[in-house]
Write a structure and sequence with these properties.
The structure is a single chain. The chain is an alpha/beta fold. 36% of the residues lie in helices and 13% in strands. The chain has 17 helices and 11 strands. The protein has helices at residues 18-28, 58-61, 77-89, 101-104, 109-115, 139-145, 169-189, 199-206, 208-220, 276-283, 297-300, 304-315, 320-329, 340-344, 347-352, 392-398, 403-411, and strands at 9-13, 32-37, 67-71, 92-95, 120-125, 194-198, 251-255, 266-270, 334-336, 355-360, 364-369. The strands form 3 sheets. It has a 6-stranded parallel sheet, sandwiched between helices. Strands 7-8-9 form a 3-stranded antiparallel sheet, covered by helices on one side. It is elongated. It binds oxidized coenzyme A. Oxidized coenzyme A binds at residues 16-19, 36, 38, 72-75, 96-98, 101, 104-105, 124-126, 136-139, 168.
């Protein structure tokens, strides 16, 4: 079956996490992704957080499926010639080097355009133009600068980073969308363009509701769905909201049976207004259906913590899965706190290809997260990540190099 991005050639000059997530998605959608790596060492993540000696780490393998690998020393003139041959042949160059690196390699936007005016150059950077544009950035820096850390955690604790890689993988996702849009625009303009996704911008985009709340706070000086209401105090900036829901339907994380020993025996419980009557019946508080102190969402706001404490008395008598079964029958929105172990073993996620088992020649079998985007006419088959330089010769031959020329390049360390 054909794939959405069949025929699209990606020069993947990415490393670590943010850029590789983007090009992995494009590969899953059918693009031919050629990953350019340093001779001898490759992407630094090949050797980071290793769980098996001398074997590509899960960090690397889980971000580089369905790609081909070529090694090039881009600081060697003949290596640079190979890189430029790839620029001429490809549709998109994706990179996430520190600011200025591509220019120092001689691959300025002007040079790339002169080599291939149809080339789309897509970059992840830590910051967009401004005071921090020259800074190197990793995940947690972006979470802090994008508004996530100041709004995550509990009121009486420090700012917190989240386990979701919203700075790296989140920005990779944003960049992938920019790339496919640029490919679409190129159909009519015939021209390439530069696509920039800054990690600070990507995180802020995902924290949009908190900028909404900042403006509500500026105007009203109070936000009734926040746990600081009614007994705590609000300062000038959006406070950390604990486990409060970011939307109009109050929610909180509640203990379930076994919480004393299982750190994940919890459920997220949402007191959605349309099912308030059912919630009251399930927990045995039928009086709250008509009691004016509880009957309306507005009346409940100052009592949310007390209400959740009462609901928790009920959830503590059920496992999170028993509670889910009961609550779902009443259409009460809720979600179990699933551990990574539970997710890894969840049969339905295996069935949909969201969690996939992959075989690797030196590592053996391992689990990875498959394509979260499911397309009916462009199915994803996850194939293993390439070994370092596994496709160097194959790609050079495609570029028109003879086997003798490849041997010469190898001998001089250019590839
Ligand atoms: N051959 C020869 N040299 C190569 C090469 C190759 N194939 N590939 C890269 N290099 C060189 C570059 O030319 C550069 O050299 P110079 O600094 O001399 O010009 C050098 O490798 C290092 O590039 P870098 O500065 O990007 O790498 P770093 O490890 O020092 O920094 C990071 C890493 C992630 C902080 C930085 O790349 C960055 O800020 N990227 C943008 C933001 C980003 O994507 N961050 C998320 C990373 S995922 O957590």
């Amino acid at each position: 079956m054909s794939k959405a991005l069949d025929g699209v050639r990606i020069l993947d000059f990415t490393h670590v996490q943010s850029g590789p997530t983007c090009t992995q998605l494009l590969a899953w959608m059918g693009a031919d992704v050629v990953k350019v790596e340093r001779v001898g060492s490759g992407d630094i993540t090949r050797g980071q957080l290793r769980d098996i000696p001398d074997v590509d780490s899960l960090y690397f393998t889980m971000l580089n499926h369905n790609k081909r690998s070529i090694t090039i020393d881009t600081k060697n003139p003949n290596g640079k010639a190979v890189l430029e041959a790839l620029v001429k042949r490809c549709d998109v160059l994706v990179e996430n080097f520190a600011p200025g690196v591509l220019d120092r390699m001689g691959l300025t936007w002007e040079r790339i355009q002169s080599l291939n005016p149809r080339m789309i150059v897509a970059s992840v950077k830590g910051f967009g133009p401004g005071p921090y544009e020259d800074c190197k950035v990793y995940e947690n820096v972006a979470q802090c600068a994008g508004g996530s850390a100041s709004t995550t955690g509990f009121d009486d604790g420090p700012p917190l980073v989240t386990g979701a890689q919203i700075g790296d993988s989140g920005t990779g996702l944003h960049l992938a969308l920019g790339i496919v849009a640029a490919l679409y625009q190129r159909i009519t303009t015939g021209r390439g363009q530069q696509v920039l996704a800054a990690m600070q911008d990507g995180v802020l985009n995902l924290c949009r509701v908190k900028l909404r709340d900042q403006q509500r706070l500026d105007r009203l000086h109070v936000m009734e769905e926040y746990p600081q209401f009614p007994n705590g105090s609000f300062g000038e900036a959006v406070p950390r909201a604990g486990n409060a829901s970011g939307g109009g339907q109050p929610g909180w994380i509640l203990k379930c049976k076994g919480w004393e020993t299982d750190p994940n025996a919890y459920i997220y419980f949402i007191t959605q207004a349309p099912v308030w009557e059912d919630i009251c019946k399930v927990i045995g508080e039928e009086g709250w259906i008509t009691d004016p102190d509880y009957a309306t969402p507005k009346a409940r706001l100052p009592r949310l913590m007390q209400i959740f404490a009462r609901i928790e008395e009920w959830t503590k008598t059920k496992t999170k899965f028993e509670a889910m079964d009961i609550l779902n029958k009443h259409d009460i929105p809720c979600g179990p706190i699933l551990s990574m172990k539970e997710i890894a073993n969840e049969p339905s996620l295996r069935k949909t290809g969201t969690v996939v088992e992959v075989d690797h020649p030196t590592r053996g079998k391992y689990l990875t997260v498959g394509n979260p985007i499911k397309m009916s006419d462009s199915p994803t088959e996850v194939t293993r990540s390439p070994l370092l330089g596994e496709h160097t010769e194959e790609i050079l031959v495609e570029l028109g190099y003879t086997k003798d020329q490849v041997a010469t390049l190898r001998a001089e360390g250019a590839i």
